[in-house]
Amino acid sequence: MISDPGVVGLLYLVTIVCFVVALRFLSSPKHARKGNWIGGVGMLVAIGTTLLLDGIGNWALIVVGGLIGSVVGVVGARTVRMTAMPQMVAIFNGVGGGAAALVALAEWHNIVDPAGDETVSIVLSALIGSISFAGSVVAFAKLQELVSGRPIVFPGQNVFNILVLLGAAGLGIAAVSGVEDQWVLYALIGLALLFGVMFVLPIGGADMPVVISLLNAFTGIAASATGFVLDSTVLIVSGMLVGAAGTLLTLLMAKAMNRSIANVLFGAFGQVQVAAGGARTDDGRTVRATSAEDVAVQLSFARKVIVVPGYGMAVAQAQHDVRQLADVLEERGVDVKYAIHPVAGRMPGHMNVLLAEANVPYTQLFEMDQINPEFAQADVALVIGANDVTNPAARHDTASPIYGMPILDVDKAASIVVMKRSMRPGFAGIDNELYLDPKTTMLFGDAKDSVLKLISAVKAT
Protein backbone atom coordinates (compact mmCIF):
# COMPACT_ATOMS: atom_id res chain seq x y z
CA MET A 1 0.00 0.00 0.00
CA ILE A 2 1.09 3.58 -0.69
CA SER A 3 0.63 5.96 2.23
CA ASP A 4 3.17 8.69 1.43
CA PRO A 5 1.29 11.67 -0.13
CA GLY A 6 4.48 12.72 -1.91
CA VAL A 7 4.79 9.39 -3.70
CA VAL A 8 1.11 9.45 -4.64
CA GLY A 9 1.44 12.97 -6.00
CA LEU A 10 4.53 12.03 -8.00
CA LEU A 11 2.83 8.99 -9.56
CA TYR A 12 -0.24 11.04 -10.45
CA LEU A 13 2.05 13.67 -11.97
CA VAL A 14 3.51 10.95 -14.19
CA THR A 15 -0.04 10.12 -15.29
CA ILE A 16 -0.84 13.75 -16.11
CA VAL A 17 2.40 14.17 -18.08
CA CYS A 18 1.61 10.99 -20.03
CA PHE A 19 -1.84 12.33 -20.92
CA VAL A 20 -0.46 15.67 -22.08
CA VAL A 21 2.26 14.02 -24.18
CA ALA A 22 -0.31 11.57 -25.60
CA LEU A 23 -2.49 14.46 -26.76
CA ARG A 24 0.52 16.05 -28.42
CA PHE A 25 1.37 12.83 -30.26
CA LEU A 26 -2.24 12.27 -31.31
CA SER A 27 -2.14 15.50 -33.29
CA SER A 28 -0.16 13.78 -36.05
CA PRO A 29 -1.01 10.54 -37.90
CA LYS A 30 2.69 9.72 -37.86
CA HIS A 31 2.82 9.57 -34.06
CA ALA A 32 -0.83 8.77 -33.20
CA ARG A 33 -0.20 5.11 -32.36
CA LYS A 34 2.63 6.06 -30.03
CA GLY A 35 0.33 8.63 -28.44
CA ASN A 36 -2.24 5.94 -27.70
CA TRP A 37 0.41 3.78 -26.03
CA ILE A 38 1.65 6.67 -23.90
CA GLY A 39 -1.90 7.53 -22.85
CA GLY A 40 -2.51 3.87 -21.99
CA VAL A 41 0.60 3.77 -19.81
CA GLY A 42 -0.57 6.91 -18.03
CA MET A 43 -3.95 5.36 -17.34
CA LEU A 44 -2.31 2.16 -16.08
CA VAL A 45 -0.18 4.18 -13.64
CA ALA A 46 -3.26 6.07 -12.43
CA ILE A 47 -5.29 2.90 -11.88
CA GLY A 48 -2.42 1.09 -10.17
CA THR A 49 -1.71 4.02 -7.87
CA THR A 50 -5.36 4.40 -6.91
CA LEU A 51 -5.75 0.70 -6.11
CA LEU A 52 -2.69 0.82 -3.83
CA LEU A 53 -3.94 3.77 -1.77
CA ASP A 54 -4.69 3.22 1.89
CA GLY A 55 -8.38 2.69 2.56
CA ILE A 56 -9.25 1.09 -0.76
CA GLY A 57 -11.65 -1.75 -0.01
CA ASN A 58 -14.00 -4.15 -1.81
CA TRP A 59 -11.15 -5.61 -3.81
CA ALA A 60 -13.37 -8.41 -5.08
CA LEU A 61 -15.81 -5.95 -6.63
CA ILE A 62 -12.96 -3.91 -8.08
CA VAL A 63 -11.38 -6.95 -9.68
CA VAL A 64 -14.71 -8.16 -11.09
CA GLY A 65 -15.49 -4.70 -12.46
CA GLY A 66 -12.01 -4.39 -13.93
CA LEU A 67 -12.26 -7.78 -15.61
CA ILE A 68 -15.67 -6.98 -17.11
CA GLY A 69 -14.45 -3.63 -18.40
CA SER A 70 -11.27 -5.16 -19.79
CA VAL A 71 -13.15 -7.87 -21.64
CA VAL A 72 -15.57 -5.36 -23.15
CA GLY A 73 -12.71 -3.08 -24.15
CA VAL A 74 -10.56 -5.80 -25.69
CA VAL A 75 -13.46 -7.42 -27.54
CA GLY A 76 -14.61 -4.04 -28.78
CA ALA A 77 -11.16 -3.06 -29.98
CA ARG A 78 -10.58 -6.40 -31.70
CA THR A 79 -13.97 -7.06 -33.28
CA VAL A 80 -15.58 -3.71 -34.07
CA ARG A 81 -14.97 -2.75 -37.68
CA MET A 82 -13.20 0.52 -38.36
CA THR A 83 -16.31 1.66 -40.22
CA ALA A 84 -18.23 1.31 -36.94
CA MET A 85 -15.66 3.28 -34.94
CA PRO A 86 -17.90 6.38 -34.60
CA GLN A 87 -20.56 4.26 -32.88
CA MET A 88 -18.02 2.75 -30.51
CA VAL A 89 -16.54 6.16 -29.69
CA ALA A 90 -20.03 7.49 -28.99
CA ILE A 91 -21.07 4.65 -26.67
CA PHE A 92 -17.74 4.52 -24.83
CA ASN A 93 -17.95 8.26 -24.34
CA GLY A 94 -21.44 7.83 -22.92
CA VAL A 95 -20.17 5.20 -20.48
CA GLY A 96 -17.76 7.78 -19.08
CA GLY A 97 -20.57 10.27 -18.53
CA GLY A 98 -22.76 7.60 -16.96
CA ALA A 99 -19.96 6.59 -14.61
CA ALA A 100 -19.61 10.19 -13.45
CA ALA A 101 -23.35 10.38 -12.74
CA LEU A 102 -23.29 7.11 -10.80
CA VAL A 103 -20.39 8.31 -8.64
CA ALA A 104 -22.31 11.49 -7.92
CA LEU A 105 -25.37 9.45 -6.93
CA ALA A 106 -23.29 7.24 -4.63
CA GLU A 107 -21.61 10.22 -2.95
CA TRP A 108 -24.97 11.94 -2.47
CA HIS A 109 -25.82 9.25 0.10
CA ASN A 110 -22.60 9.97 2.01
CA ILE A 111 -22.79 13.75 1.99
CA VAL A 112 -22.06 15.41 5.34
CA ASP A 113 -22.87 19.08 4.66
CA PRO A 114 -25.77 19.43 2.19
CA ALA A 115 -24.92 23.09 1.61
CA GLY A 116 -21.16 22.53 1.23
CA ASP A 117 -18.96 22.91 -1.81
CA GLU A 118 -19.02 19.16 -2.36
CA THR A 119 -22.72 19.38 -3.24
CA VAL A 120 -21.97 21.70 -6.16
CA SER A 121 -19.54 19.15 -7.60
CA ILE A 122 -22.03 16.32 -7.10
CA VAL A 123 -24.80 18.25 -8.85
CA LEU A 124 -22.58 19.20 -11.79
CA SER A 125 -21.25 15.67 -12.12
CA ALA A 126 -24.77 14.20 -12.08
CA LEU A 127 -26.22 16.78 -14.45
CA ILE A 128 -23.49 16.89 -17.09
CA GLY A 129 -22.69 13.18 -16.84
CA SER A 130 -26.33 12.20 -17.36
CA ILE A 131 -26.70 14.51 -20.36
CA SER A 132 -23.53 13.06 -21.87
CA PHE A 133 -24.68 9.49 -21.27
CA ALA A 134 -28.16 9.89 -22.76
CA GLY A 135 -26.96 12.04 -25.64
CA SER A 136 -24.22 9.55 -26.50
CA VAL A 137 -26.70 6.67 -26.49
CA VAL A 138 -28.90 8.53 -28.97
CA ALA A 139 -25.86 9.41 -31.08
CA PHE A 140 -24.92 5.71 -31.08
CA ALA A 141 -28.46 4.77 -32.14
CA LYS A 142 -28.38 7.27 -34.99
CA LEU A 143 -24.95 6.16 -36.18
CA GLN A 144 -25.96 2.50 -35.94
CA GLU A 145 -29.16 3.37 -37.83
CA LEU A 146 -31.33 2.03 -35.01
CA VAL A 147 -33.18 5.34 -35.34
CA SER A 148 -33.30 7.73 -38.27
CA GLY A 149 -30.11 9.67 -38.94
CA ARG A 150 -32.26 12.59 -40.10
CA PRO A 151 -33.27 15.26 -37.56
CA ILE A 152 -36.27 14.16 -35.47
CA VAL A 153 -38.19 17.31 -34.68
CA PHE A 154 -41.63 18.35 -33.43
CA PRO A 155 -43.26 21.74 -32.85
CA GLY A 156 -42.04 23.52 -29.74
CA GLN A 157 -39.13 21.15 -29.28
CA ASN A 158 -36.60 23.83 -28.35
CA VAL A 159 -39.01 25.33 -25.80
CA PHE A 160 -39.60 21.88 -24.31
CA ASN A 161 -35.86 21.25 -24.09
CA ILE A 162 -35.28 24.56 -22.35
CA LEU A 163 -38.00 23.82 -19.80
CA VAL A 164 -36.52 20.39 -19.08
CA LEU A 165 -33.04 21.87 -18.62
CA LEU A 166 -34.39 24.63 -16.39
CA GLY A 167 -36.18 22.01 -14.30
CA ALA A 168 -32.94 20.05 -13.87
CA ALA A 169 -31.08 23.26 -13.02
CA GLY A 170 -33.77 24.18 -10.47
CA LEU A 171 -33.39 20.82 -8.74
CA GLY A 172 -29.63 21.35 -8.73
CA ILE A 173 -30.05 24.73 -7.06
CA ALA A 174 -32.36 23.15 -4.50
CA ALA A 175 -29.75 20.49 -3.73
CA VAL A 176 -27.00 23.09 -3.35
CA SER A 177 -29.26 25.15 -1.11
CA GLY A 178 -29.39 22.33 1.40
CA VAL A 179 -32.32 20.11 0.38
CA GLU A 180 -31.10 16.64 1.30
CA ASP A 181 -34.05 14.54 0.12
CA GLN A 182 -32.92 11.60 -1.99
CA TRP A 183 -35.57 12.21 -4.66
CA VAL A 184 -33.97 15.54 -5.59
CA LEU A 185 -30.88 14.02 -7.20
CA TYR A 186 -32.90 11.15 -8.71
CA ALA A 187 -35.25 13.67 -10.34
CA LEU A 188 -32.32 15.79 -11.48
CA ILE A 189 -30.69 12.80 -13.15
CA GLY A 190 -34.02 11.81 -14.74
CA LEU A 191 -34.53 15.26 -16.26
CA ALA A 192 -30.90 15.39 -17.37
CA LEU A 193 -31.29 12.03 -19.12
CA LEU A 194 -34.45 13.28 -20.85
CA PHE A 195 -32.67 16.44 -21.94
CA GLY A 196 -29.75 14.41 -23.30
CA VAL A 197 -32.14 12.40 -25.47
CA MET A 198 -34.10 15.42 -26.70
CA PHE A 199 -30.88 17.37 -27.20
CA VAL A 200 -29.46 14.95 -29.78
CA LEU A 201 -32.65 13.77 -31.54
CA PRO A 202 -33.02 16.92 -33.70
CA ILE A 203 -29.38 16.79 -34.84
CA GLY A 204 -28.76 15.18 -38.22
CA GLY A 205 -26.05 12.77 -39.31
CA ALA A 206 -24.05 15.52 -41.02
CA ASP A 207 -23.45 17.11 -37.63
CA MET A 208 -22.47 13.93 -35.80
CA PRO A 209 -18.73 14.86 -35.78
CA VAL A 210 -19.59 18.04 -33.89
CA VAL A 211 -21.99 16.28 -31.54
CA ILE A 212 -19.48 13.54 -30.68
CA SER A 213 -16.84 16.18 -29.92
CA LEU A 214 -19.23 18.18 -27.77
CA LEU A 215 -20.43 15.14 -25.83
CA ASN A 216 -16.81 14.16 -25.33
CA ALA A 217 -16.20 17.58 -23.81
CA PHE A 218 -19.25 17.08 -21.55
CA THR A 219 -17.87 13.77 -20.33
CA GLY A 220 -14.51 15.38 -19.57
CA ILE A 221 -16.15 18.17 -17.57
CA ALA A 222 -18.31 15.64 -15.70
CA ALA A 223 -15.21 13.58 -14.88
CA SER A 224 -13.44 16.70 -13.64
CA ALA A 225 -16.39 17.53 -11.39
CA THR A 226 -16.25 13.96 -10.10
CA GLY A 227 -12.59 14.58 -9.28
CA PHE A 228 -13.67 17.35 -6.91
CA VAL A 229 -16.22 15.00 -5.36
CA LEU A 230 -13.57 12.33 -4.76
CA ASP A 231 -10.77 14.79 -3.99
CA SER A 232 -8.73 13.32 -6.86
CA THR A 233 -6.31 15.73 -8.50
CA VAL A 234 -5.49 13.37 -11.35
CA LEU A 235 -9.19 13.00 -12.21
CA ILE A 236 -9.69 16.77 -12.12
CA VAL A 237 -6.77 17.44 -14.45
CA SER A 238 -7.42 14.57 -16.87
CA GLY A 239 -11.10 15.47 -17.02
CA MET A 240 -10.30 19.06 -17.88
CA LEU A 241 -7.83 17.92 -20.54
CA VAL A 242 -10.61 15.92 -22.18
CA GLY A 243 -13.07 18.79 -21.73
CA ALA A 244 -10.72 21.36 -23.21
CA ALA A 245 -9.71 19.13 -26.12
CA GLY A 246 -13.34 18.27 -26.87
CA THR A 247 -14.40 21.91 -26.72
CA LEU A 248 -11.61 23.01 -29.03
CA LEU A 249 -12.38 20.23 -31.49
CA THR A 250 -16.08 21.16 -31.41
CA LEU A 251 -15.27 24.76 -32.30
CA LEU A 252 -12.92 23.65 -35.09
CA MET A 253 -15.57 21.31 -36.53
CA ALA A 254 -18.18 24.07 -36.51
CA LYS A 255 -15.71 26.45 -38.13
CA ALA A 256 -15.00 23.87 -40.83
CA MET A 257 -18.71 23.98 -41.69
CA ASN A 258 -18.90 27.77 -41.33
CA ARG A 259 -21.72 27.40 -38.84
CA SER A 260 -22.26 28.46 -35.26
CA ILE A 261 -22.55 25.93 -32.46
CA ALA A 262 -26.12 27.12 -31.88
CA ASN A 263 -27.01 26.38 -35.51
CA VAL A 264 -25.51 22.91 -35.24
CA LEU A 265 -27.40 22.10 -32.05
CA PHE A 266 -30.73 23.79 -32.72
CA GLY A 267 -30.94 24.22 -36.50
CA ALA A 268 -32.24 20.70 -37.30
CA PHE A 269 -29.71 20.61 -40.12
CA GLY A 270 -30.30 17.74 -42.50
CA GLN A 271 -34.03 17.78 -43.09
CA VAL A 272 -34.70 16.86 -46.71
CA GLN A 273 -35.14 20.02 -48.78
CA VAL A 274 -37.55 19.65 -51.69
CA ALA A 275 -36.60 22.77 -53.56
CA ALA A 276 -34.25 25.08 -51.70
CA GLY A 277 -30.54 24.74 -52.06
CA GLY A 278 -30.64 21.77 -54.39
CA ALA A 279 -29.25 21.07 -57.83
CA ARG A 280 -31.58 22.21 -60.63
CA THR A 281 -32.24 20.69 -64.02
CA ASP A 282 -34.31 23.52 -65.54
CA ASP A 283 -31.26 24.68 -67.54
CA GLY A 284 -31.16 21.45 -69.52
CA ARG A 285 -28.28 19.78 -67.68
CA THR A 286 -28.64 16.11 -66.86
CA VAL A 287 -26.83 13.52 -64.83
CA ARG A 288 -24.55 11.35 -66.95
CA ALA A 289 -23.88 7.75 -65.94
CA THR A 290 -20.65 5.99 -66.87
CA SER A 291 -19.09 2.54 -66.70
CA ALA A 292 -16.09 1.15 -64.83
CA GLU A 293 -14.31 0.55 -68.15
CA ASP A 294 -14.64 4.21 -69.21
CA VAL A 295 -13.47 5.46 -65.83
CA ALA A 296 -10.53 3.05 -65.92
CA VAL A 297 -9.35 4.60 -69.19
CA GLN A 298 -9.47 8.08 -67.64
CA LEU A 299 -7.56 6.96 -64.57
CA SER A 300 -4.96 4.94 -66.49
CA PHE A 301 -3.93 7.84 -68.71
CA ALA A 302 -4.14 10.55 -66.06
CA ARG A 303 -1.09 12.26 -64.65
CA LYS A 304 -2.71 13.31 -61.39
CA VAL A 305 -5.69 11.80 -59.58
CA ILE A 306 -7.18 13.16 -56.37
CA VAL A 307 -9.31 10.73 -54.39
CA VAL A 308 -12.06 12.28 -52.25
CA PRO A 309 -13.29 9.71 -49.68
CA GLY A 310 -16.58 10.10 -47.87
CA TYR A 311 -19.05 8.20 -45.75
CA GLY A 312 -20.05 6.05 -48.73
CA MET A 313 -16.56 4.56 -48.70
CA ALA A 314 -16.89 3.84 -44.99
CA VAL A 315 -20.27 2.14 -45.35
CA ALA A 316 -18.99 -0.07 -48.16
CA GLN A 317 -15.75 -0.81 -46.25
CA ALA A 318 -13.89 0.00 -49.42
CA GLN A 319 -10.80 1.63 -47.92
CA HIS A 320 -8.50 -1.34 -48.59
CA ASP A 321 -9.68 -1.57 -52.20
CA VAL A 322 -9.23 2.16 -52.68
CA ARG A 323 -5.62 1.82 -51.55
CA GLN A 324 -5.16 -1.12 -53.93
CA LEU A 325 -6.55 0.98 -56.79
CA ALA A 326 -4.12 3.75 -55.90
CA ASP A 327 -1.24 1.25 -55.88
CA VAL A 328 -2.19 0.04 -59.37
CA LEU A 329 -2.35 3.60 -60.66
CA GLU A 330 0.96 4.54 -59.07
CA GLU A 331 2.59 1.58 -60.83
CA ARG A 332 1.54 3.31 -64.04
CA GLY A 333 3.17 6.57 -62.94
CA VAL A 334 -0.03 8.32 -61.82
CA ASP A 335 0.32 10.79 -58.94
CA VAL A 336 -2.40 9.86 -56.42
CA LYS A 337 -3.39 12.04 -53.48
CA TYR A 338 -6.27 11.97 -51.01
CA ALA A 339 -8.36 15.03 -50.15
CA ILE A 340 -9.67 14.92 -46.57
CA HIS A 341 -12.47 17.27 -45.53
CA PRO A 342 -12.48 17.89 -41.75
CA VAL A 343 -16.13 16.84 -41.35
CA ALA A 344 -16.24 13.99 -43.86
CA GLY A 345 -17.72 10.89 -42.27
CA ARG A 346 -19.36 10.64 -38.88
CA MET A 347 -16.64 11.53 -36.42
CA PRO A 348 -13.58 13.80 -36.41
CA GLY A 349 -10.80 12.17 -38.42
CA HIS A 350 -13.06 9.38 -39.68
CA MET A 351 -11.48 9.26 -43.15
CA ASN A 352 -7.96 9.44 -41.73
CA VAL A 353 -8.66 6.47 -39.45
CA LEU A 354 -10.10 4.34 -42.25
CA LEU A 355 -7.29 5.08 -44.69
CA ALA A 356 -4.66 4.57 -42.00
CA GLU A 357 -6.18 1.15 -41.32
CA ALA A 358 -5.71 0.41 -45.04
CA ASN A 359 -2.02 1.43 -44.71
CA VAL A 360 -2.35 4.46 -46.95
CA PRO A 361 0.83 6.52 -46.37
CA TYR A 362 -0.02 9.55 -44.26
CA THR A 363 2.10 11.63 -46.67
CA GLN A 364 -0.64 11.10 -49.28
CA LEU A 365 -3.38 12.48 -47.02
CA PHE A 366 -3.99 16.19 -47.45
CA GLU A 367 -6.31 18.47 -45.52
CA MET A 368 -8.73 20.73 -47.36
CA ASP A 369 -6.61 23.88 -47.30
CA GLN A 370 -3.59 21.98 -48.59
CA ILE A 371 -5.30 20.10 -51.42
CA ASN A 372 -7.79 22.66 -52.75
CA PRO A 373 -5.19 24.57 -54.85
CA GLU A 374 -4.25 21.28 -56.55
CA PHE A 375 -7.65 20.37 -57.94
CA ALA A 376 -7.16 22.71 -60.90
CA GLN A 377 -4.11 20.64 -61.93
CA ALA A 378 -5.84 17.27 -61.40
CA ASP A 379 -6.85 15.25 -64.45
CA VAL A 380 -9.43 13.27 -62.48
CA ALA A 381 -11.14 13.85 -59.13
CA LEU A 382 -12.51 10.51 -57.92
CA VAL A 383 -15.27 11.15 -55.37
CA ILE A 384 -16.14 8.04 -53.34
CA GLY A 385 -19.31 8.59 -51.37
CA ALA A 386 -18.61 12.21 -50.38
CA ASN A 387 -21.65 14.43 -50.92
CA ASP A 388 -22.21 17.68 -49.08
CA VAL A 389 -18.50 18.48 -48.72
CA THR A 390 -18.18 18.66 -52.53
CA ASN A 391 -21.35 20.65 -53.29
CA PRO A 392 -20.55 23.93 -55.16
CA ALA A 393 -23.84 25.37 -53.90
CA ALA A 394 -22.00 26.14 -50.67
CA ARG A 395 -20.15 28.91 -52.51
CA HIS A 396 -22.94 30.81 -54.24
CA ASP A 397 -26.45 29.60 -53.33
CA THR A 398 -27.61 31.72 -50.40
CA ALA A 399 -30.76 29.60 -50.14
CA SER A 400 -28.74 26.46 -49.51
CA PRO A 401 -28.47 25.24 -45.91
CA ILE A 402 -24.75 24.62 -46.50
CA TYR A 403 -24.08 28.12 -47.91
CA GLY A 404 -20.73 29.39 -46.66
CA MET A 405 -19.41 25.96 -45.65
CA PRO A 406 -15.84 25.45 -46.88
CA ILE A 407 -15.85 22.63 -49.44
CA LEU A 408 -13.36 20.65 -51.47
CA ASP A 409 -12.86 22.30 -54.87
CA VAL A 410 -13.66 19.11 -56.76
CA ASP A 411 -15.44 20.99 -59.56
CA LYS A 412 -12.15 22.60 -60.62
CA ALA A 413 -10.65 19.28 -61.75
CA ALA A 414 -10.50 18.52 -65.47
CA SER A 415 -12.78 15.51 -65.03
CA ILE A 416 -14.91 14.38 -62.09
CA VAL A 417 -16.08 10.84 -61.39
CA VAL A 418 -18.59 10.37 -58.58
CA MET A 419 -19.09 6.89 -57.15
CA LYS A 420 -22.47 6.66 -55.46
CA ARG A 421 -25.25 4.14 -54.88
CA SER A 422 -28.03 6.44 -56.06
CA MET A 423 -29.04 10.09 -56.41
CA ARG A 424 -30.22 10.15 -52.81
CA PRO A 425 -29.23 13.40 -51.04
CA GLY A 426 -26.49 13.47 -48.44
CA PHE A 427 -26.87 14.28 -44.75
CA ALA A 428 -27.70 17.92 -45.50
CA GLY A 429 -30.85 16.75 -47.28
CA ILE A 430 -30.16 18.61 -50.56
CA ASP A 431 -29.14 17.63 -54.07
CA ASN A 432 -25.54 18.15 -55.11
CA GLU A 433 -25.27 20.40 -58.15
CA LEU A 434 -21.82 18.93 -58.84
CA TYR A 435 -23.62 15.94 -60.33
CA LEU A 436 -25.01 18.18 -63.11
CA ASP A 437 -21.61 19.61 -64.02
CA PRO A 438 -20.77 18.74 -67.66
CA LYS A 439 -17.39 17.44 -66.45
CA THR A 440 -19.03 15.00 -64.01
CA THR A 441 -19.94 11.39 -64.67
CA MET A 442 -21.65 9.08 -62.18
CA LEU A 443 -20.52 5.51 -61.52
CA PHE A 444 -23.50 4.03 -59.69
CA GLY A 445 -23.23 1.05 -57.38
CA ASP A 446 -21.73 -0.11 -54.10
CA ALA A 447 -18.39 1.65 -53.61
CA LYS A 448 -16.50 -1.55 -52.87
CA ASP A 449 -17.87 -3.36 -55.93
CA SER A 450 -17.20 -0.33 -58.14
CA VAL A 451 -13.62 0.04 -56.94
CA LEU A 452 -12.96 -3.66 -57.52
CA LYS A 453 -14.30 -3.30 -61.06
CA LEU A 454 -12.04 -0.29 -61.57
CA ILE A 455 -8.99 -2.25 -60.40
CA SER A 456 -9.71 -5.04 -62.88
CA ALA A 457 -10.43 -2.59 -65.69
CA VAL A 458 -7.26 -0.55 -65.06
CA LYS A 459 -5.15 -3.70 -65.06
CA ALA A 460 -6.74 -4.71 -68.36
CA THR A 461 -6.22 -1.32 -69.96
Enumerate the strands of the largest sheet in spatial order, edge to edge or round the barrel: 3-2-1-4-5-6
The computed structural class is alpha/beta
Average of per-residue pLDDT values: 85
Order of helices and strands: HHHHHHHHHHHEHHEHEHEHEEH
Regions with little confidence, pLDDT below 50 for 5+ residues? 272-282
Q: Using DSSP, what is the number of strands? A: 6
Largest sheet geometry: 6 strands, parallel
Radius of gyration: 25 Å
Q: Helix amount, in percent? A: 55-70%
- Number of DSSP helical runs: 17
- Overall shape: it is globular
End-to-end CA span = 70 Å
Strand content: 5-15%
What would you say this structure looks like, in words?
It is a single chain. This protein has helices at residues 5-25, 32-51, 59-79, 85-109, 117-143, 157-176, 182-200, 208-230, 233-256, 261-266, 292-300, 311-316, 319-331, 350-357, 368-371, 393-396, 447-460; strands at residues 304-309, 335-340, 365-367, 380-384, 415-420, 440-444. With 461 residues, the chain is an alpha/beta fold. The chain has a six-stranded parallel beta sheet with strand order 3-2-1-4-5-6. Helix 16 links the parallel strand 4 (380-384) and strand 5. The longest helix has 27 residues, at 117-143. It is globular, with a radius of gyration of 25 Å.
How does the SSE layout of this entry go?
Blueprint: H1 5-25, H2 32-51, H3 59-79, H4 85-109, H5 117-143, H6 157-176, H7 182-200, H8 208-230, H9 233-256, H10 261-266, H11 292-300, E1 304-309, H12 311-316, H13 319-331, E2 335-340, H14 350-357, E3 365-367, H15 368-371, E4 380-384, H16 393-396, E5 415-420, E6 440-444, H17 447-460
Parallel strand pairs: 1-2, 1-4, 2-3, 4-5, 5-6
Helix pairs in contact: 1-2, 1-9, 4-5, 4-7, 4-8, 5-6, 5-7, 5-8, 6-7, 8-9, 11-17, 13-17
